Amino acid sequence: MSSLRRRLLLAIVTSFALFWAISSAFTLVSLRDEFRDALDERLAASARMVAALMRDAPQLALGSSTAPPAVLPALAGDDSVACVIERLRGGVIGQTANSPASLAAATPGLQTRTINGVTWRSYTLEQDGIRITTADRVDRRQQLFRNIALATFVPFLIAMMATLGSLGLAIKIGLRPLERVRQALGSRDPDALHPLGEEQVPLELLPLVSTVNGLLHKVERTIARERRFTGDAAHELRTPLTAIKTHLQVARRSTDPHDIRTALENAEHGVRRLHETIDQLLMLARVEASVPFAEDQRLDTGAIAEQAVAGFQTTQPGKLLIWNHAEGAIPAVPAALAVIALRNLLDNAFRHGAKGNKVELSMVTSGTEVTFAVTDDGAGMNQEDRAKAGERFWRKGSGHGSGLGLSIVDAIVTRYGGSWTLAQSAAGGLEVRMTLPAVFSDRVRRLQ
């Protein structure tokens, strides 16, 4: 995996290279065209200059056509412009030493020709009965253009490399605070959850450091909560195990059949309590860990209530009143979880309600939500107890049960975007309202 520094430098180098490559290509093309036009203009100016000299010396043009051509000293030299002067009616008046033999055989204007393997750029001017041809070697032109291009772009390339080196150094220095944060996190003990210092952190890194500190705080709270949960769970499991062990020891030592039967019944009750606590712990862990429940179907409120109250109708006959005003509403929660949550609410109502009195279950809809309300007419709870009711293993007074029922309800409604509340009922008892998102269609998506 590449480092941030390398990625930044690569992005800058690529951007520079792409931009300057396009710019350089455009500049080179423009420079080449301007350079060619300037040299062509030089050829034309040379031809016009020679024509002007011929007008000032007409005796040259009137000389014998059989006389040998003169060497033009003003244009002589291998690196200068080649020139040929001839009469239109025939006969060469003069030429430079570097002129090829067939250079004069040209039509007026600019031309590019290859003569004896050498490419020439020529300009021909016809005036006052004479033809003047000036020419440059194309390879000399190219060499001169390369020299100009090198003289122009080499300093630029050096400057660009120096700039990129400076940028690399600047990026290295600029990323030092981020490296310090990395080192501070990497050198920490796994149990160290105190926040990072924000005193010398640049403004750009403050959001990152603040986010990391917030995460450390959440991890610290989660670990503390799980440690409390582990300790409470160990205590809750130890209590029924101790009771079971005690009753079994009594049954082993006793010789009275009645005492043995009583001890075994008590031990069986302890096993049931232990089994119930373990089931609740596993369910709470599964819900909080976001384990998928894709295998569960969706049921409407009537079917959920029917499954939740099945056991209570046997153990508490005639004590449960059901009012379903939400027929057709389907909670967007796996049916198994909805049944468990509602059963826990009913179990609390029967455990803590007044003996012999009624528990009411009502279901109503509001917009895209469905609410299950469970009301008893017991002693209710004060505000302090209602604030603690959702805590794990909390029980009112010396109440029975695992103390996890409302914790599981809280985990289920939190996972699926619902809510639950505790309030004093009109009759003085406790009213628990559980609100869940719902759909009102036969096609229900499975939520995980």
Note the beta-strand portion. 15-25%
Q: What is the tally of beta strands?
A: 12
Low-pLDDT runs of 5+ residues are 443-448
The level 1 CATH classification of the largest domain is: Alpha Beta
- Helix amount: 40-55%
- Label the CATH architecture of the largest domain: 2-Layer Sandwich
Number of domain units: 3
End-to-end gap: 34 Å
CATH topology of the largest domain: Beta-Lactamase
Alpha carbon gyration radius: 50 Å
Summed over residues and divided by their number, the pLDDT gives a mean of 77
The major sheet is characterized as: 6 strands, mixed
Structural class: alpha+beta
Main-sheet strand order equals 1-3-2-6-5-4
Q: What overall geometry do the principal axes of the alpha carbons give?
A: rod-shaped
The secondary-structure element order is HHEEEEEEHHHHHEEHEEHHEE
- Supply the number of helical segments: 10
